[in-house]
Design a protein that fits this description.
This protein is of the alpha+beta class and 239 residues long. It contains 4 helices and 12 strands; from the N terminus they run αβαββββαβαββββββ. The chain has a single domain, classed as TBP-like, CATH 3.30.2030.10. α1 packs antiparallel against α3. This is TATA-box binding.
Amino acid sequence: MKYFFIFLATVGMMFSVDQLLTETKTNIENQKEIDELIGLVEERDLQLSNLQTTIKESMEIADIESFISEINGYQFDIQEKSQDKNRLKFSSDRQENTGITESILLVRTNEQEEQYQVIYTIKATEAAPEVLKAYKEKIKTITNGLFTKNAQYFSCVEAWKDDMIDIVCFINFVKTRLNMTVIDEIKEPDFYTWTGYTPKWNNKLQQNDEEINLQIAVRERVGDRTTITIGTPILIHEY
């Protein structure tokens, strides 16, 4: 009997270590992508205006009140649409002096099966070393405390330049830097988008028969200002 309990304890420790390694691997991969997104902006002398990461996961939550009570540091508001009581929402926002803004949204998608969509979003308007460090630490903390290995990660950077840019030169730079394969391209007056795949990043989505994990949008605005948005695996905010 003693050896049986030792076996159970060993298996439990192995499971915990395995889960921790999985979460650490996910964090490392996400941080690598964020660093490379910022690197693309800095190497082209662009001005960063927004860095954003969104983490999403569908999960079963039997006791939503207890679930919320364990999320420290957030004050949740409840919203319920009268025409669809299944669409119960809990939302919370938090902003700190570092310029980092966070939000958590819990949306009930199936009342009978107690299914919720959990969405965490973090934003920063600059990438100074101390801000970026705090940004990554918050993602790590929320990952370990709120999500599992099934969560999806989406990161975006938006930057600008008070001038026109050589768009062909820029996209060739990105393709070379990330070994990017362009899968789809759209060209409109003053607006361009590319969807592609880079083997440098493990985060990816399936689009038809292709794998994608990188999207780029370039908009030339009035006054010669150019706005560039780069996201993995897809763009997650308006451009």
